UniProtKB/TrEMBL annotation:
Keywords, ordered alphabetically: Cell membrane, Membrane, Transmembrane, Transmembrane helix
Entry superkingdom: Bacteria
InterPro entries reported in the protein's UniProt record: Diverse_Substrate_Transporter, EamA_dom, EmrE-like
Membrane-spanning intervals of the chain: 33-51, 63-87, 99-116, 125-142, 148-166, 178-197, 209-232
Keyword Transmembrane helix on entry: yes
Biased composition, class Basic and acidic residues, residue ranges: 293-306
Membrane topology: Multi-pass membrane protein
Lineage: Bacteria, Bacillati, Actinomycetota, Actinomycetes, Micromonosporales
Stretches for region Disordered: 285-306
Main location as per UniProt: membrane
Stated name of the protein: DMT family transporter
Species annotation: Dactylosporangium cerinum
Length: 306
């Protein structure tokens, strides 16, 4: 069941961009999408913790600093990463965006080497070159390249990389569901504060928009995260990380089926290079920011969300 749960999680995360596209079509703004998503997800996670108090258990007191860091990860890192991702989603297709975001495992490896947390081997070097080539092919193969969208998407991957490296310092101090609830709460707090400063968010979109927002919060956030944690217990982080490469595959397939978005042969080749490099990095024993931290942001074991 472990691999199956990891694949279910990847499929749920892979549907995120598709749900976002449909929410935009219903008139939902990015600010409303993010605020509702994180508020609802945080509420659901706290309900889970209330019903299952053993999930709050830890063998030692984490201390106020660790709790504050967890909230800060959401308030600064996750909120910024998601904001960049959904801003990019308004400008470009879901499939290439998902592949651009999935460069974050490579960025984590580069950052870990530069920070002295890991060393660069020949195998990892080849994986980095392969991923870079794949990303260039994804961008070059776009029929209607949107430079701002691509830049926002890559910015999301960079922010997520920083988020993972910081989260790796606290992830072992908190139970995963509690950490996720704190991260979601922090993100919801930042977005609520931003809404208050900017005059609020517009919730006058079509009723179907609420359905897509519920899908984003329940399916692509809470369910995706909880199934990942359950699968991770049986597979280990490296296997879970490799299985998570199913996520952009799901995004690409769903985008073709529901949105009429198709990758060109050049982009398909680039995507294959990006995903294969992630698998190589994991089997090579690359840096593993703990799976409890990640979107993606609460689950990517490539440390390891977005």
């Amino acid at each position: 069941m472990g691999p199956a749960l990891c694949l279910v999680s990847a499929a749920c995360f892979g549907a995120l961009a598709i749900f976002g596209k449909f929410a935009y079509e219903a008139g939902v703004s990015p600010s409303a999408l993010l605020l509702v998503r994180f508020t609802l997800a945080a509420a659901l996670l706290w309900v889970v913790l209330l019903v299952r108090p053993e999930l709050r258990w830890t063998d030692r007191s984490p201390g106020g600093r660790v709790l504050a860091t967890a909230v800060g990860l959401g308030a600064i890192g996750y909120a910024a990463q998601a904001s960049l991702f959904f801003a990019a989603l308004r400008l470009m297709d879901a499939s290439p965006l998902s592949l651009i975001l999935y460069t974050f495992p490579v960025l984590v490896t580069v950052a870990a080497v530069l920070l002295g947390r890991d060393r660069l081997t020949a195998r990892r070097g080849i994986a980095l070159v392969t991923a870079s080539t794949g990303t260039l092919l994804v961008l070059a193969g776009a029929g209607s390249f949107h430079p701002v969208g691509a830049l926002l998407g890559f910015g999301s991957a960079v922010v997520y990389t920083v988020y993972i490296l910081v989260a790796d310092t606290v992830v072992h101090r908190l139970p995963p569901v509690l950490l996720s609830a704190l991260v979601m709460t922090g993100a919801a707090g930042t977005l609520a504060a931003r809404a208050a400063v900017t005059g609020g968010v517009d919730l006058s979109f079509r009723p179907v928009g609420w359905f897509w927002l519920a899908c984003i919060a329940v399916v692509s956030t809470v369910t995706a995260m909880l199934t990942f944690f359950a699968g991770l217990r049986h597979t280990g982080p490296s296997t879970a990380a490799i299985l998570s490469t199913f996520e952009p595959v799901v995004t690409t397939a769903l985008a073709a089926l529901t949105l009429g978005e198709f990758l060109t042969p050049l982009q398909l080749l680039g995507g294959a290079l990006v995903l294969s490099s992630v698998a190589v990095l994991q089997t090579a024993g690359g840096p593993q920011p703990s799976p409890e931290t990640g979107e993606r942001a609460v689950r990517a074991p490539v440390e390891h969300v977005a």
